[in-house]
Backbone:
C-alpha cells in the first residue's frame, strides 16, 4: 500500500513550491515586461492614458493615409477594444484606460477610432470581419453589408460636421461603394475639388475611379495625377494605376 | 461643468465688486490730470465689471494669473502646461524621450507677468493701448501679448479691471541736466543693465547692488521691460515709491529694491521720464527665399514648423481633450476658424472666414502668396513695426525665419501632400 493521498500531496507540495513560485513570479512579471513605455501596470491590468490611446489612433490614421489598410485595421482593433473597455478579455493583454471609458475625452477618441475603422473598411474594399475587427476575406454579402454600415458611420460624422471637407470626402468614399450612389459621391468630390478643399490623395483616387466609370477622361487624368502628387511615396498604394486603369 | 463655470463667474463678480468697493471709484473721482502723457478718455471711462467678464471671454487665464481670476482648465492653460513640461511634471502618458524633447524645446510662456498688481504700477491708458496694439515690450522674452480682436471700448473695460484705481496727480520732478546725469550714473552703478535695456541704449551690466538667486534673476531678466516704455506706461504717482520699494506695490515682484534715498529715486525717475531715448532698432523683414526644387513632405513641415508653433492653436480637438485651440475651435475671443494643422488632409481642409465660408489656406487669392504663407509674412512685418489688418502668425510668438517660411511655401507649391 502506498502512502495515503493526503501524505502524498504533503510530500509533493514542498518539492513543487520552487516551480510554483517561479510560475507565479513569471505570471506577475509578464505584464510588467509587456508594458509599453507610456503605459503603467496596475494589478492585473495595464492602464493606458487617453493621450496614449490618442497617439495610437493617430498612428492608425497615418497608416491608413499611407495606404496600409491592414496595418490600420490592426492598430484600430487594439485601440477600439481599449476605448470600449473590452480589452480585458479577448487576447488584448488586459489593457484598460486610466479614465472612465464613458468620460468625454475617451468617448471622443472612441468615436474617432470607430469612424476611422469605417473608413478603413471602405478603403480595404470591404474585406474586413467587422465583428472580430480583422482584415481578411469575407463573402460578397458581408462586403456589401460592410459598405452600408460604413456609409452610416461616415454619414453620422458628416452630420456632426456638415461643412468639413474631410467628413464630406470620407462620406463620398463610402457613397461611391454603394449601388446607385456614385453620382452623389462624384458631385461631392467635384465640388470640393472646385473649391481647392480636396483633403487627400484618397479623395482624388476615388474621383479618378468614378470619372473613369463615367468616361470623363479629362477629370480622370487630372484626378489621378493629383492623387500621385499628394500621395508622394505612397502613390502605389493609394492611387489608380496610370493611363486610366480600371477601378482598383 | 456648468456649475463650475457659474461658480467661477460668481467668484469673479464678487472679486470685481470688492475691488470697486475698496476704493476704485473713490480714486476715479479724484480725477487724473497727469503730467506729460494724459490718460486716454476712453480708457479712463472703462468699466471694471465689464472688464472682468471680458477677461473670461478673452481667456486671459490661458497665460496669466491674477488673484480672483479662475485659472484656465489644464487643456487650455498654456503657461501651466509649459511650466509643467519645464519641471518634468507634465503627465500625459508620453514616454521619457518625448518628455525630454518637449523640455528641451519649451522656451515660451515660462515667465508670464502676473496681472494681480499691475494696476499699482501701470497706467490704465497704457494697458488699454497694449491690448489694442500689442508690441514687443520685453526684449528678452520670445513671446509678446498676442494681437486679439479687442475694440477700444473693450480695451478700456479690461484696463479698468486691471487698474481700477485712477492715477493721482504727481508733482513734477526736477529734470535739469545735472539731475538726469546723476540718475543715469545711479542706473549704471546699480547694475540695472543686467536685466533692462532702454530703447536702443544698452546699459552697462555692473554687478547688481543686491544679489539675486539664479532662479529669481532668470525670471527678473526674462520679464524686464524696456525702460523706454516707462514714460508712457508707468504710473507717475507710483514711480518713485516703486523704485524705492518695489514690493510695497507688488509683493511678488522680482525687481530688487536698489535705491536707498528718496533723492536718488527721484533722480532715477527723472532720468527714466525725461532723458532722451535712442530708438530701438526694429527687426528687418527677412528676404523671401526661392522655392525649394525638391518635394517637401508634410512630415518635414510638421517637424520643423507646424508641430512646434502652429499646432498649439490649430490642434485636433479629439486628441486634445476637446480643445482644438483658438485657431480651430476658438479661444482668446476669436470664433473658431476650424483650421487644424495636425495632418496634410486637415491643412488642406481650409479655414472658415468671417463670413463662415470655408476656403483653402493653401491657394493664393489676393496676393502672390497662399493665405497660410501670407500670415507668416505678416508676422515678420509686425516685428518690423509694419502691422497690417492681417493678423500675423504665429500669434504672439516670434516670426518664423526665412528658411521655415520657404519650407512651408515649398510644401504648398509641391502639392501640399503627405
Residues:
Amino acid at each position: 500500500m502506498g502512502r495515503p493521498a493526503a501524505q502524498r500531496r504533503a510530500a509533493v507540495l514542498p518539492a513543487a513550491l520552487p516551480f510554483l513560485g517561479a510560475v507565479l513570479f513569471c505570471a506577475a512579471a509578464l505584464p510588467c515586461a509587456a508594458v509599453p513605455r507610456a503605459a503603467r501596470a496596475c494589478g492585473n491590468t495595464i492602464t493606458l492614458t487617453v493621450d496614449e490611446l490618442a497617439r495610437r489612433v493617430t498612428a492608425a490614421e497615418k497608416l491608413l493615409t499611407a495606404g496600409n489598410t491592414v496595418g490600420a485595421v490592426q492598430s484600430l482593433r487594439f485601440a477600439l477594444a481599449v476605448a470600449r473597455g473590452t480589452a480585458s478579455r479577448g487576447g488584448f493583454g488586459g489593457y484598460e484606460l486610466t479614465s472612465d471609458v464613458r468620460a468625454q475625452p475617451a468617448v471622443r477618441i472612441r468615436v474617432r477610432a470607430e469612424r476611422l475603422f469605417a473608413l478603413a473598411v471602405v478603403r480595404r474594399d470591404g474585406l474586413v470581419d467587422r465583428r472580430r475587427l480583422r482584415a481578411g476575406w469575407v463573402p460578397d454579402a458581408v462586403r456589401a453589408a460592410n459598405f452600408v454600415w460604413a456609409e452610416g458611420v461616415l454619414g453620422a460624422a458628416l452630420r456632426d460636421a456638415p461643412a468639413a471637407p474631410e467628413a464630406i470626402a470620407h462620406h463620398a468614399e463610402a457613397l461611391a461603394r454603394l449601388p446607385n450612389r456614385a453620382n452623389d459621391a462624384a458631385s461631392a468630390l467635384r465640388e470640393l475639388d472646385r473649391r481647392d478643399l480636396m483633403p487627400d490623395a484618397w479623395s482624388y483616387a476615388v474621383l479618378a475611379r468614378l470619372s473613369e466609370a463615367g468616361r470623363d477622361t479629362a477629370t480622370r487624368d487630372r484626378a489621378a495625377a493629383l492623387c500621385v502628387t499628394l500621395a508622394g511615396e505612397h502613390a502605389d498604394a493609394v492611387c489608380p494605376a496610370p493611363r486610366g486603369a480600371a477601378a482598383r | 461643468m456648468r456649475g463650475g463655470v457659474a461658480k467661477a463667474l460668481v467668484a469673479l463678480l464678487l472679486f470685481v465688486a470688492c475691488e470697486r468697493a475698496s476704493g476704485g471709484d473713490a480714486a476715479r473721482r479724484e480725477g487724473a490730470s497727469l503730467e506729460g502723457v494724459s490718460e486716454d478718455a476712453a480708457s479712463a471711462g472703462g468699466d471694471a465689471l465689464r472688464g472682468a467678464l471680458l477677461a473670461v471671454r478673452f481667456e486671459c487665464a490661458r497665460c496669466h494669473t491674477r488673484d480672483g481670476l479662475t485659472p484656465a482648465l489644464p487643456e487650455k492653460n498654456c503657461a501651466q502646461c509649459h511650466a509643467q513640461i519645464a519641471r518634468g511634471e507634465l503627465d500625459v502618458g508620453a514616454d521619457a524621450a518625448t518628455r525630454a524633447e518637449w523640455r528641451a524645446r519649451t522656451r515660451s510662456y515660462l515667465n508670464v507677468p502676473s496681472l494681480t498688481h499691475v494696476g499699482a504700477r501701470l497706467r490704465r491708458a497704457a494697458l488699454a493701448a497694449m491690448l489694442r496694439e500689442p508690441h514687443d515690450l520685453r526684449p528678452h522674452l520670445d513671446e509678446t501679448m498676442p494681437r486679439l480682436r479687442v475694440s477700444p471700448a473693450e480695451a478700456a473695460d479690461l484696463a479698468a479691471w486691471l487698474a481700477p484705481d485712477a492715477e493721482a496727480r504727481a508733482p513734477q520732478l526736477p529734470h535739469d541736466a545735472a539731475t538726469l546725469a546723476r540718475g543715469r550714473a545711479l542706473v549704471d552703478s546699480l547694475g540695472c543693465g543686467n536685466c533692462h535695456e532702454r530703447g536702443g541704449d544698452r546699459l552697462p551690466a555692473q554687478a547688481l547692488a543686491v544679489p539675486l538667486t539664479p532662479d529669481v534673476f532668470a525670471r527678473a531678466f526674462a520679464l524686464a521691460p524696456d525702460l523706454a516704455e516707462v514714460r508712457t506706461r508707468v504710473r507717475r504717482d507710483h514711480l518713485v515709491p516703486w523704485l524705492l520699494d518695489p514690493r510695497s506695490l507688488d509683493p511678488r515682484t522680482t525687481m530688487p529694491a536698489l535705491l536707498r534715498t528718496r533723492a536718488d529715486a527721484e533722480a532715477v525717475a527723472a532720468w527714466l521720464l525725461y532723458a532722451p531715448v535712442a530708438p530701438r532698432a526694429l527687426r528687418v523683414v527677412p528676404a523671401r527665399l526661392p522655392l525649394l526644387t525638391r518635394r517637401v513632405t508634410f512630415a518635414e513641415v510638421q517637424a520643423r514648423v507646424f508641430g512646434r508653433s502652429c499646432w498649439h492653436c490649430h490642434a485636433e480637438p479629439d486628441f486634445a481633450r476637446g480643445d482644438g485651440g483658438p485657431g480651430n475651435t476658438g479661444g482668446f475671443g476669436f470664433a473658431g476658424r476650424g483650421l487644424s494643422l495636425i495632418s496634410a488632409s486637415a491643412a488642406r481642409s481650409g479655414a472658415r472666414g468671417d463670413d463662415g465660408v470655408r476656403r483653402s489656406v493653401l491657394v493664393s487669392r489676393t496676393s502672390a502668396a497662399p493665405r497660410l504663407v501670407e500670415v507668416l509674412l505678416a508676422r515678420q512685418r509686425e516685428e518690423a513695426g509694419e502691422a497690417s489688418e492681417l493678423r500675423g502668425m504665429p500669434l504672439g510668438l516670434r516670426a518664423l525665419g526665412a528658411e521655415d517660411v520657404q519650407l512651408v511655401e515649398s510644401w504648398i507649391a509641391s502639392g501640399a501632400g503627405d
